[in-house]
Write a structure and sequence with these properties.
- This protein has four domains: about 1-55; about 60-85 and about 330-535, Beta Barrel (Elongation Factor Tu (Ef-tu), domain 3), CATH 2.40.30.170; about 90-120 and about 305-325, no CATH class; about 125-305, Helix Hairpins.
- Helix content is about 45%, strand content about 30%.
- The chain is built from five helices and 24 strands.
- It has helices spanning about 1-25, 25-60, 120-205, 225-305, 525-535, and strands at about 65, 70-90, 95-100, 110, 115-120, 305-310, 315-320, 325, 335-350, 360-365, 375-380, 385-390, 395, 400, 405-410, 410, 420-430, 440-460, 465, 470-480, 485-490, 490-495, 500-505, 515.
- The strands form six sheets. It has a six-stranded antiparallel barrel.
- A hairpin with a 7-residue loop joins β10 (about 360-365) and β11 (about 375-380).
- The longest helix is centred in the first third of the chain and has 86 residues, at about 120-205.
Length: about 525
């Protein structure tokens, strides 16, 4: 009975379930579908979690590099603009006139000395003719004045020479007269002495006991006595007269000699006055014509300036001159020599002390692609020219700081705001490419130093201990979990490039494999969650 009853109850239950399923068929189907979806979602979630864990492990796995020999270049990078090394803004000092001729077109290639334009000089030509006439009249007057002064100087020179000659002749004559008077006196004195001697001889001859009989008696009765006696009487008077004459002649000579210096001074003073008058005439007449000469030279220069020529080879990049237009100053044309280029750039205050004239520069541009031009630092400004301001100090999206998003594509997201003082420099381009045009952007790498064939590693491979010791981690193998095992190798840094740095040390060897640590950073998901928790997105 009990088993029959159980069978009946089971039958009723099955029948009830069947009835319930029929009544709730849609609900059952939906429940099954949801169950299947739940299973699928669970499986996918597990796989996603495993993939994320694997991605996280790969993201945290350090990069590796080898110690290799490279040529390292330390440089400062910046951008600039290609400019013509030589350019000339052509103007003229001739104003308030018209342009009579224009001989070039915009874009023409010209050579130094080529004619650009000509300005009207009709009024200047008339002024020049008047100025030249004034100069001719002034020079004629000056010439006549100078000739007159020259004649006066010649007369003064001749008078001086004649006066000096007369003065010397007077002195010589006075000396001769003195000498002759002295000779006359001496001759008379000698004559007197001779007569006295003859008289004494005559007297002695009569008084001598040995004399002849005929000569005895008074000597005054001798025939010779009368002549000798007359001379003895007349000669003293003659001598006295001669002495007075000699004294007069000597006085005349002494007077002439004493007066010579004063008379010579007067003669020279008269001559020097004529010389000074002549010099004054020369200076006066030279200055008198200088004003006219300056006027003529000024007008000639202005007329020459009305013919405008280019001083350099180049291309006419701007042409303001228009035929028959009025010209009142300003630019007529601009010629730029584009065969020789330079780059104008700014260096910030942090790098300017590294820049020196003569440093090599590698130059690239968008127009030349990977092709490199070479240049030399030609000049460095001694003073700052101003400041450069970049946009904002970072940025934000939906409430979080973009400046904190690091580790993405090997870089960082940042606005990089600054307000740095900059110093202009000029780079002389050695051989510009034909594709480079004035105004194009130049990308510059200024070479500070270069080391060839040195052991080097990526910059991020250098690590620092708490005590400041620098080291790299050499990979020695892997542990059971596949993680790298390492040892520290002490190093010293050398030349640094943008990515690599020279290292040295007793344990550093070429080819050793080392760890390149990754920068510690949060994932984008963590940052977004943090931003959301802070009131974020």
């Amino acid at each position: 009975m009990s088993s029959a009853r159980s069978a009946r109850e089971n039958g009723r239950n099955k029948k009830g379930v069947g009835i319930w399923l029929k009544k709730h068929k849609k609900l059952c189907i939906l429940s099954v579908i949801l169950l299947i979806i739940a299973v699928i979602v669970g499986v996918i979630g597990i796989r996603i979690n495993r993939a994320m864990e694997e991605l996280q492990r790969e993201a945290n796995r350090p990069d590796t590099a080898k110690v290799e020999r490279r040529t390292l270049v330390e440089s400062v990078s910046t951008t600039g603009t290609f400019q013509a090394a030589y350019e000339s803004n052509l103007t003229s000092e001739v104003t308030n006139t018209t342009i009579q001729g224009v001989y070039v077109k915009l874009g023409d290639r010209v050579s130094a000395g080529d004619l650009i334009c000509v300005l009207d000089t009709t009024e200047l030509e008339e002024d020049l003719a008047d100025a030249r006439k004034d100069l001719a009249d002034s020079e004629k007057s000056s010439r006549e004045d100078l000739e007159r002064a020259q004649r006066q100087l010649n007369d003064a020179t001749r008078t001086r020479d004649e006066s000096i000659a007369d003065l010397d002749e007077t002195i010589n004559n006075a000396l001769t007269n003195w000498q002759e008077a002295e000779a006359d006196r001496i001759e008379l004195e000698n004559r007197l002495a001779e007569v006295e001697s003859q008289m004494e001889q005559l007297k002695a001859s009569y008084e001598s006991p040995e004399g002849e009989e005929s000569q005895k008696g008074n000597y005054m009765d001798s025939p010779s006595y009368s002549s000798l006696n007359e001379q003895l009487i007349s000669l003293p008077g003659q001598i006295s007269t001669a002495q007075r004459a000699e004294e007069r002649a000597k006085n005349n000579y002494d007077t002439a000699v004493a007066d010579r210096e004063s008379r010579l001074q007067r003669i020279n003073d008269t001559y020097q006055s004529a010389v000074e008058n002549y010099d004054s005439a020369v200076e006066r007449n030279a200055n008198a014509s200088e004003r006219e000469r300056e006027r003529v030279a000024e007008l000639e220069e202005r007329i020459a300036a009305a013919t405008v020529r280019t001083p350099i080879d180049g291309i006419v990049t701007d042409l303001s001159a228009t035929l028959w237009a009025d010209y009142n100053g300003g630019s007529l044309a601009v010629v730029k020599n584009t065969d020789t280029l330079r780059v104008e750039a700014d260096i910030d205050e942090y790098d300017i002390n590294k820049i020196q004239i003569g440093q090599e520069v590698v130059i690239r541009s968008n127009a030349t692609g990977d092709a490199e031009l070479t240049g030399i630092v030609g000049s460095v400004a001694p003073a700052a020219s101003g400041s450069e301001t970049a946009g904002g100090s970072g940025g934000s999206i939906a409430g979080f700081d973009l400046g904190s998003l690091e580790g993405m594509s090997g870089g960082s997201i940042s606005g990089g705001g600054s307000d740095d003082v900059v110093y202009p420099i000029l780079i002389d381009v050695a051989i510009p490419g034909t594709e480079v045009k004035v105004g194009m952007t130049a990308k510059l790498s200024i070479i500070l130093s270069k080391q060839e064939n040195v052991l080097s590693v990526p910059f991020d491979a250098i690590q620092e201990d708490e005590d400041g010791t620098l080291f790299v981690e050499e990979i020695t193998g892997k542990d059971e979990e596949g993680e790298y095992t390492t040892r520290k190798i002490l190093v010293t840094k050398g030349v640094e490039s943008d990515y690599y740095v020279e290292i040295s040390g007793p344990d550093v060897k070429e080819g050793m494999e080392i760890i390149v640590p990754k920068a510690e950073s949060k994932s984008i998901f963590d940052l977004m969650q943090e931003a959301g928790a802070a009131g974020g997105m």
